[in-house]
Amino acid sequence: MHLALDFPPISHLIRWPTIFGSGVWAVNKVVLLEWLAVILLIWFFLAARKGALVPSGVQNVAEAAVDFVRNEVILQTIGPEGLNWTPFLLTLFMFIFVCNIFEVIPVIQMPVNARMAMPFFMTAIVFFIYHYLGFRHQGFFGYFKSMLFPPGVPKALYLLVSPIEFLTYFFTRPLSLAVRLFANMLAGHLLLATFAILTAALFTATYIGAVIPGALLVALYGFEVLVSVLQAFIFTILTAVYIGGAIHPEH
Amino acid sequence: MHALMLAAQNAGELQAGLTAVGRGIVYGGAAIGPGIGIGIVVGNAITASARQPEAAGAARTTMFLGIAFTEALALFGFVLAFIISG
Q1: CATH architecture, domain B21-83
Q2: Tens digits of per-residue pLDDT, A223-246?
Q3: Looking at beta carbons, which residues of chain B come within 8 Å of A180?
Q4: Is the CB of A184 inside 8 Å of chain B's CB atoms?
Q5: Quick check: A179 and B76 CB within 8 A?
Q6: What is the pTM assigned to this prediction?
Q7: Nearest partner of A243 among A165, A129, A150, judged by Cα
Q8: How many CA atoms lie within 13 A of B34 on its CB side?
């Protein structure tokens, strides 16, 4: 029995042909999806802005989202003085979530964050924001002092700790923040594609053989919804942790 | 002579095969430590929230942070496995 198992190379799964434009301004499916995400967010913002006393529909969802970001993200990490960061963190959370959830929406099925551009760009914003806040709240030397010489460490250990801390702040943090989001969405996309191909191949060969991978595919869709929410949450909460660390240093 | 020519012809295939093996080893190796680490993080978070249910919220937030930091190592391996090319 021959199975028509033909896994496409990775680049076929995430690289899309140009629809219009050329060069740097080439627009493909991923760019269109980003625009769609922005439009959805603007619509969400306008619909939630009505401020009816008894919320309904979109306004309900929006208030739940604001509540979530305020109570679960900001108050848990930065504290009450971080509340004026709610708009930024809420935008970040909703944008990442919308970009991620495209992964499981039929017909679209392409997580925008599975391309490195978006996670990298958002990480660059976060990187500049928390360093700027550190310089502004602690002063130039104060920030480097609290960064490189964390209190409560034996003097001799600074030889080892300071370079590691420097690398953490300037290299590991942004790299892991971007790669975490990117790799999670790419892995989820590949997982779904693999199981879909397997199910299709088994279905054409033996109808009954597709039952188990098909059921697993459905379960994985549910799992990917969870991952989409979780990754948006983790990106936002790590941003909040970095901002909190820059605003008030450890004593 | 014949064997040498055959070996020269198969060099490309050999390299592709070894690349695939290398990718598998890189990701597999990178997944060991974080697998154990996430187990420890989640296990301890469950212990904490079972002992003090009123602190479950704080334990959950910290658990997600711990998972995120631990998981990053496995994801570096995942990305590195794609970067490796023959």
Answers
A1: Up-down Bundle (1.20)
A2: 999 999 999 999 999 999 999 989
A3: 68, 71-72, 75
A4: yes
A5: yes
A6: 0.89
A7: A129
A8: 18
User: CB A77 to CB B79 under 8 A?
Assistant: no
Residue A1 has pLDDT above 60, yes or no: no
Give the residue-averaged pLDDT of A73-95. Answer: 91
Nearest to A180 among B57, B61, B71 (CB): B71
Q: How confident is the model at residue B58 (pLDDT cuts 50, 70, 90)?
A: confident
What would the two tokens of residue A154 be?
Answer: 């034996």
Taking an 8 Å cut-off on Cβ atoms, the answer to whether A176 and B79 are in contact is: no
Indicate the domain borders of chain B: 21-83
- Report which DSSP code applies to A20: B
In angstroms, rounded to a whole number, what is the distance separating the alpha carbons of residues A230 and B68? 10
Tell me which chain B residue has its CA closest to the CA of residue A241: B65
Q: How far is A176 from chain B (nearest CA, A)?
A: 6
Q: Which amino acid is at A67?
A: D
